[in-house]
Amino acid sequence: MVAAGREAKTAYRALNLGNTAIERDDRGYIKTDRRMQTTDENVFCVGDAAGNPHLAHVAYRQGKVAAEVAAGGDDSFDGRYIPAVMYTDPEVAIVGLSETDAAEQYDGIKVGRVPFSASGRALTTNKSSGYVKVIADANEKLLGVRIVGARASDSIAEATLALEMDAHLDDIATTIHAHPTFPEAVAEAAEAAKGESIHSH
Question: What is the pTM of this model?
Answer without folding.
Answer: 0.85
